[in-house]
From TrEMBL:
Record PROSITE patterns: GNAT
Organism: Xanthomonas sontii
GO molecular function terms attached to this record: protein N-terminal-serine acetyltransferase activity; protein-N-terminal-alanine acetyltransferase activity
Signal peptide boundaries: none
Protein name: GNAT family N-acetyltransferase
Keywords, in A-Z order: Transferase
Domain N-acetyltransferase: 13-175
Segments forming a coiled coil: none
Matches recorded under PANTHER family: ACETYLTRANSFERASE, RIBOSOMAL-PROTEIN-SERINE ACETYLTRANSFERASE
Length: 176
């Protein structure tokens, strides 16, 4: 019995926590992906930017996962859980972006599903929330494919590229 396209794509992706040694590869991938990222996100593209971002992942309240295409080792995407809170809240915000050359092949869909499974099983979270700009149709579709549900709309929610931007609020619950 053959694999479905979905199973093949999922097995084609690996996830790992970001390490300092990933910095140069991430910087290069971000530089190559500027046209894909802007105006939705403006990730670091230099060593000081990486170091500042990476420092935020060391205290446990922000956790970054790197998705790689297994066959080539190419960076497929970056996922960041921020404001990870335990206790009675057990929730985090999730930000993500694809890397140029890996978009449109199902890799991000399966990487996002793996990230959400990690959040629930390994981090013990109950809720993962993603806030997405309404015109970012690819990111909205990705969230839907990964089982997120739209919960609301937040005007002028995040300042991105120097502009306060509206966002749709999407979430997944552990028992969804």
């Amino acid at each position: 019995m053959g694999q479905s396209a979905g199973q093949a794509a999922q097995e084609a992706v690996s996830l790992a926590r970001v390490r300092r040694r990933d910095g140069i590869a991430l910087i290069q991938a971000h530089r190559a992906s500027v046209a894909l990222h802007h105006p939705w996100t403006y990730p670091f593209t230099d060593v000081p930017g990486f170091e500042a971002w990476y420092a935020q992942t060391l205290d446990g309240s922000n956790i970054a996962l790197l998705a790689r295409e297994r066959s080539s080792g190419a960076l497929a995407g970056l996922f960041t859980f921020s404001q990870v809170v335990g206790g009675c809240f057990q929730s985090a915000y999730l930000g993500y972006h694809a890397m140029a050359g890996c978009e449109g092949r199902g890799l991000m869909t399966h990487a996002l599903r793996l990230c959400v499974a990690y959040a629930f099983a390994e981090l013990g979270l109950h809720r993962v929330e993603a806030n997405i700009q309404p015109d970012n149709t690819r990111s909205l579709a990705l969230a839907q494919r990964a089982g997120f549900r739209r919960e609301g709309y937040s005007p002028r929610y995040l300042r991105i590229g120097g502009v306060w931007r509206d966002h749709e609020r999407w979430a997944r619950l552990a028992d969804d």
